[in-house]
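Q: Could you write out the predicted structure for this multi-component system? I'm mainly interested in how the pieces pack against one another.
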Amino acid sequence: MNAFRLAGDMTHLLSIILLLLKIRATKSCAGISLKTQELYVIVFMSRYLDLFRTYYSLYNSLMKIIFLGTSMCIVWYMRSHKVVRQTYNNDEDTFRHFFLVLPCFVLALLVHRNFTFIEILWTFSLYLESVAILPQLVLLQKSSNIDNLTGTYVFLLGAYRGLYLFNWVYRFFTENHRVRWIPWLSGLIQTAIYTDFFYYYIRSWKNREKLKLPA
Amino acid sequence: ESHSSSHDEL
């Protein structure tokens, strides 16, 4: 494993820890999109099916279990915890899952490497992950008051796939020189979706101002 | 073969 990959995974893990910390410490999920969090549960469930089939490493299995467990835990807090769920921005989190899940699934049926159950679900998870942040970004645009933890959570979540892009370039030149269009393009689109957010996040950080996205 | 390069990622 190279440094980019490890940095990407750690950034991803840190983003989730930060979100759980926000929820547990402040007893609030204000500004967090339940739609996005539910999409991540779908992403992890469809991608990590091979947990029971192929063993890569202890690191790999542990991280998969952590991502699955924490994503379900976050959704549970937002839907079922009697204090936290009352802080959820129900009226503003209006994006429909269906419009993301269905096209991604159809695309995975059409564009994939092998027509097998696991491979189709793996491809679907990459397509869905690339757009899963959209409900969260829409919610942030509507929010007049984005707290630091929420802003940093989204920043780290976006940075993680960006670091994976470097990891893929590195692996291309050091390992087997194979082109992997599906993860590469999905990852590129995923990172590009954050571009605007990165710009405003870094600007607010440099100017020590509160983060605000233009509507 | 199909399990190299990207299937071992998260």
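A: Regarding packing and overall arrangement: Chain A has a mean pLDDT of 96.
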